[in-house]
Amino acid sequence: MTAVAQQPDLAALAAQLDEAAVTATAIPQIVAAAGVDAVTAYAVQDALVARRLARGERLVGLKMGLTSRAKMAQVGVDEVIWGRLTDGMRIDDGGAVDLGGYIHPRVEPEVAFLMARSPEPGEPVGDFLSAVRAVAPALELIDSRYANFTFSLPDVIADNTSAAGFVIGPWQPVPAGLSNLGVLLEVNGRVVQTGSTAAILGDPRRALDSGVRLAGQHGVRLHEGWVFLAGAATAAVPLAPGVHVRAVVEKLGTASLSAAS
Ligand code: OOG
Ligand code: MG
């Protein structure tokens, strides 16, 4: 009898990841184990996000992952990745999150762009600024659906790059330079991570360039009014009950959230 190669069931993988998120229950790494590579993992991500959309959520942006060495080192994956943001992930600036809805949430400081239009893939980086309406300090809440927050590249791509929530601080006019602004992450008023926007591919605008190109390879584009998260400049920290977390980005301001105990 000859063995017939089994095609991985991408919809079933997406359903398991969705169930893990909805029930806040970690699962084993199932995606690479099913023979899915990093390119095909984006189809799992697509199916996963489609389940959120079917529940009434709306796409509101894109996010980058692993655009800094600090992040790559923390999770042991060294490829730039991208994921999707929905309105259901949005947390008001200064708002409180109920930790019961997450598995092992972490929080990290981000820089957010508000898109004025849809940039063309391949458009020169310099022209991207005309596609950006505003910039803001932000926080991302990540919550890998995998046990021990441990994953391979295909696994984290399929899991929508651990996206779980985001906070956008007050939008600011795009400053002349974004490439070397100090970034702090504070927990209960104490600085726990320090970095610079230079850690984000040298300049957060390069993250926008990569995002437009990489998402474009999958036929996904940014749209007018969408948010774009450039990727964390520092490692993420666990979000524990009762803590207040604040991202401070030089010249841009702050974004914060609290974890209800
Ligand atoms: C993957 C998502 C990474 C970032 O900003 O680098 C990310 C993870 O760390 O779980 O969002
Ligand atoms: Mg992030």
Describe the protein.
This protein is of the alpha+beta class. The mean pLDDT is 94. Strands 1, 2, 3, 5, 6, 7, 10 and 11 form an 8-stranded mixed beta sheet that branches. Helix 1 crosses helix 2 (38-54). The protein has one domain (10-259): Fumarylacetoacetase-like, C-terminal domain (Fumarylacetoacetate hydrolase, domain 2), CATH 3.90.850. The protein has helices at 10-23, 38-54, 69-75, 125-128, 153-158, 204-216; strands at 59-65, 81-86, 90-91, 95-98, 106-115, 132-142, 163-168, 182-187, 190-196, 227-229, 237-238, 244-249, 253-260. The longest helix has 17 residues, at 38-54. Helix content is 23%, strand content 30%. Magnesium ion binds next to strand 1, strand 5 and strand 6.
Fold blueprint:
Elements lengths: L9 H14 L14 H17 L4 E7 L3 H7 L5 E6 L3 E2 L3 E4 L7 E10 L9 H4 L3 E11 L10 H6 L4 E6 L13 E6 L2 E7 L7 H13 L10 E3 L7 E2 L5 E6 L3 E8 L1
Parallel strand pairs: 1-10, 3-7, 4-13
Antiparallel strand pairs: 1-2, 5-6, 5-10, 5-11, 6-7, 8-9, 8-12, 12-13
Helix pairs in contact: 1-2
This protein binds 2-oxoadipic acid (OOG) and magnesium ion (MG).
2-oxoadipic acid binds next to helix 3 and strand 6.
Task: Quote the CATH topology.
Answer: Fumarylacetoacetate hydrolase, domain 2
Domain module tally: 1
- Bound ligands, each once: 2-oxoadipic acid, magnesium ion
Q: Provide the β-strand percentage band.
A: 25-35%
The CATH C-level name is Alpha Beta
Which architecture does the CATH hierarchy give at level 2?
Alpha-Beta Complex
> Gyration radius, to the nearest Å?
18 Å
Q: Indicate the percent of residues in helices.
A: 10-25%
Structure summary, number of beta strands: 13
Outline the biggest β-sheet: 8 strands, mixed
Low-confidence stretches: none
Distance from first to last alpha carbon: 58 Å
